[in-house]
Structure formats: C-alpha cells, structure tokens
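G., before I forget:
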Amino acid sequence: MITLNVDLNDRSYPIYIGAGLLSHNSPVLQHIPAKRLCIVTNDIIAPLYLTKLKNILTGYLLDEIILPDGEAEKSLANFDKIMSHMLANGHGRDSTLIALGGGVIGDITGFAAACYQRGIHFIQIPTTLLSQVDSSVGGKTAVNHPLGKNMIGAFYQPQAVLIDTHSLKTLPVREFNAGMAEVIKYGILADKDFFSWLEQNRQKIKNNDEETLVEMIARCCQCKADIVAADEKEANIRALLNLGHTFGHAIEAEQGYGAWLHGEAVATGMVLAAKLAVTMNLLEVSDLRRIENLLSYFDLPLNAPADMGFNEFLIHMRRDKKNLAGKLRLIIPTAIGRTEIRDDISEELLKQIL
Amino acid sequence: MITLNVDLNDRSYPIYIGAGLLSHNSPVLQHIPAKRLCIVTNDIIAPLYLTKLKNILTGYLLDEIILPDGEAEKSLANFDKIMSHMLANGHGRDSTLIALGGGVIGDITGFAAACYQRGIHFIQIPTTLLSQVDSSVGGKTAVNHPLGKNMIGAFYQPQAVLIDTHSLKTLPVREFNAGMAEVIKYGILADKDFFSWLEQNRQKIKNNDEETLVEMIARCCQCKADIVAADEKEANIRALLNLGHTFGHAIEAEQGYGAWLHGEAVATGMVLAAKLAVTMNLLEVSDLRRIENLLSYFDLPLNAPADMGFNEFLIHMRRDKKNLAGKLRLIIPTAIGRTEIRDDISEELLKQIL
C-alpha cells in the first residue's frame, strides 16, 4: 500500500492506494468520527462492491442510496434526493457520507457532504481509473446544470480517499482506456519522466499488472496533489489540469453527455491543443506524434467528431469557466512535460486546426 | 459611519453601518472585482430600494432576480432558479452576487454565491433589523428543506456587508420588534452592559433614533463577529448564539413557517430556556423578569402557542442540528450576560416548564 498526503493545512487528508484494500482491515475506518454512515453508489457498482464494503463496516449504523448509473444522474434533483434521504433517516452533523463509485458518484456525494447541514464528513472510494487519478484528489465537487457541466458545486475536501486497484478488474475496457487519457495528461502537462515511464510500461498497464497500476495511480495522485496544494481554489496553476478539457467539454456538450466518455473527449482535446501548439510553433511535431501514439495505444480517439467544426466548438468554448472578462483562455502544451495558459489564441488559429 | 472588521484570516471582511449609506458614494463599490453584477431581492424590497441601489451602481453590467417575499421562498427550487438565471445571462466566475433584503434573501443568495461555479463574490445589503444583527455576520448560508430549516447550506463569507439604518424606516413594526429579540439575545448571552444599555435606551430605539440604532447594530455585529472569529464552523462557543433557537425552531416548524416570525419564536424560546434555568436553580428569578420585561416592551410573545405542549416540542427538538449521538443539547442562560451549553436536561425537567 502507498499512502500519499494531500497537504491543505487543516483540510489535509491521506490517499491510500493498494491492491485489495477494500477487503483488508481498511485504513479508512480511522477517519469515521461516529457510528452513523450513509453510502452513496450506483446500480452498476452496488452489486459488485456494496456488500464487500458493508462487511468492512460492521458495527456502524449504515444506510445507502443507490442511484442509476450515468452522467445524467449528476443532477440537482439527485442532490435533493440525497438530502431528503439523509434527513428522513435522521442523519446529524456527525454522520459520514461515503462515495463508492466513479466520478459522478464522487462529485455528487462530495457536494452533498459539503452542503448537508453546512458540511459533514466525507470519504471517497473511487472505483474507476478516471476517478482514482482525477476527481478523488483536489476537492472539486459539483452537479451539472442543463446549461453546463459542474456549474453548481463547492471546493470540499474528503477526510480520506481509498483506492483499491482490484476494482479496475471489473471496469469495462473502454472506461479503463478513458481513464488512461487523464493518466497520460499528467505526463504531458507536468512530468516528462512519467510520460516515458508510461510509454515503457504500456503493455503491463494494459494487462492490468497490479504493481504497475498502483505505482501509476500514485504518481498521478501525487502530481495532482502537488498542484492542488499549491493552488487549491484554482487561482492560477491548477488551471493547467484542464489541459484538453476546454475542447473536451465542447465535445461532450455538443454530442450529448455520455455519447463520448469524458476521457475520450479529453484525449481528443489534448490532441487539438497540441496541434494548436504545433501551428503556433510552440511544440515539436515529434512530441505531437508521441502524444498521439500513446493515446492510440489505449484506443483513444484523436479526431473531433465528424459533425463538429469551428462554429460548434466556439459556442461551447465561449462558456468555459476559465474565461475572464469574455476572453478565451486555453491550456497549450509546449513540450512533453510542460504546459502554459495562453490568452492570445485568435479565432483564426482555432479555425485552422478544426 | 461605523466600520467593523470580521476577522477570519483570508476570509475577513468589513461591515459598514450608517444612516443613508445606500445613497452616498458607497464604500461597498471597492469590493466588486469586475463589471458583472446580479442583484437578488424580493417583491417587497424591490419597489423601495432596487432603483436606489442601481443608481449607485452606474457603469456596471447589472441584472436582477426578484423573488416573492417570505420564508417559503428559501427553497432549493429558487436556488436552482438563481443558478439558471446566472448561466442563461452568461455570468462568469468574476461576477458578483448582491443580496438586497432580509435574512431569506441573504441566506439563499449567499448559498447561491457559494455554489455558482464553486464560489463567486458576494455582497450583503441586509434591510431588516434581524438580518442586520444576525444573518449578515458569520457566513451561514442555506436554503430550507421540507424536513427542516437551513438543512442545505454552506459556510461562505461575503466580501462586504453594507447596513443602512434608513431601511428600518420602511420595516413593519412587527418585524422590527422581531429583530429586537435577536438584539436582546446578545445582551443575555454575552454582554450584561449591553443588556442594561438596551433597558436604558429602549424608548429611543422604539422611536427609531438613528444614532442609537447605529450604535445598537454595531454592538450586536461586534458581539457576533467576536464569537464567529473564535469559532467559525461552530465547533464550540458559536453554538451559544443559538440561545432560544431550539425552542424557537420547534415553534416555527409546528406552527408552519411564517405564522410566527423567527424573532418572535426566538423571544419565546429564550423565555423558555430562562425558565428551565430557574427551575434548575441556575438563574435568578429577577433575571428572568428583566428578560421578560425587555421583550414585552417590544411586544414580543413570552409564552408557547396554546396548542403546543411537551410532545409537540420534543418531536422537533430531537431533530436539532446541535444534537450529537442522539442526545438533546440546550443553551441555558445562567445570568444576564452568561450562557452555557448543557447536555444534562432530562425530559422530565422539560415537561415541567411546557
């Protein structure tokens, strides 16, 4: 087991990463302050892991909320459903919410924990690769609004995160690969050694080699934890984590949430950002090729949907949270392991690559 | 003008208190970071002060949301309405939300500011006595749930608070008096000199003497600011501010929100807490009489509703947020200017005074 510490002063918390952590004498138990617990999960994860989790939590007063699977469930209506369930079951301010599932479950449960009686304890057990390397670190919680993803939310840190790599065995290959897009993202944006390590270990990763997966996830979490510790509220460098996301969110919004997986949209978004950088003479073509090759190895899409051109992207990109005072901002890779926030991208340039 | 500073490290903010601050070159303008603003108010306050406020804010891109008046509007549905309005009007993370109104408007607008794109700037202009001395200090924001008041919310601090005592001239007498219950509360719970000052100045207060009102409000805000600075998240002494509120919330819930004004319910709640203290030999009868007399002078109710006995109170009090591990906790005055949190109140004792 690897234990990382996310350093945020009085909101610091540990991430436990290992194979089989959900069946051992779990380190997460020490982070539950009182006997009352509520587990939030979905109807895909519940049959696989809910009983396992409940078996660890003997001696607690447990109840559970099982949502349908899918991004569409990350709604204010389901947030309300969690609130109503908690109140109807008499949960107090010393209750703990546990998120068992992927990013959708983590985000909505975290937001519920942030708001229930103005904030209760919260533990994350991410079961998808994407949520393990991304949404479980950094305290971004949210629900979607029909007019935009993650528009209603809070910065709220969990008490602890438990990552059991065993859960990746039951993850569909397409979702595992989508998670790899975010893994590769860390290499591109901040760590060229990690990018090379991924190139060297790609076969072991594809074969679900446990030791390799634990190391890979730990390196991603450490990378994100370092960035979040330096800039919790995204005043500056935390924005770099959005590499590929401005294009990606546009794809997800235009195609309808769920048609493309988030990681797939981010993969294409990173390629588009890299192409923009090449056009601007900021990135070597050889680096673009390495990015494309590694993404391809994990069967990730490199091109925008056939029905999306310049105009379709622009409508959505103008609505991005990173924009200030109406200007478009984009994260651009300038080498493997180095990214910049640029405000000087003309619509003309954007047109060339789309 | 009196300026107080609420000391919360990087979340510190000023409170400006004075007569006519809404028509002067307002000190609040320096706390707005960008040109986009949205004002949230209600249909009682809008005809009285919205134009006045907009005249101060020339040069800004303004829009507004006017909710119906009343506690029932502090709902998740209206929170959603604010989110939708903000998104539809293209507000970004540098927009500012301004709450113009009483506690309902302040609470829901503050919660909206806390959650919109995970947090934007927020300015409070409380127009009722209650919101000026209570909800504008301390960062408690929330909406109600059908199963309980303020059950969905966040701790979120404004950039600044502007209190213009002129707004009290248009406040109905019954609401002014309800606000006086919270004013008197500060005297009972923490400041016996202030309680005496209120006894001496009660006629000036009733006559709306401006200088007296500015001093009174400033003393209340300072008292609350000191307590909040010592305990922002209500881990301990902040709970003392709930004097009278456990009984009060039970009255409001049982009678239906709005039948009794919040301050009226708190007035009765404080008398019940004081009676409990007398029964336990913790408070002199003469202090109970002084409390009753001062509340009476402002026409506040001293007795529980005729249709509420022990059982009706108990159902609601068991659901209180202060309760830990199922035990009832109550705030009890032990003298004018001194209160304690007690866990040792038996249901038998409660029965004697109800």
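The first strand of chain A starts at residue 2 and ends at 6. The first helix of chain A runs from residue 45 to 56.

More on Monday.
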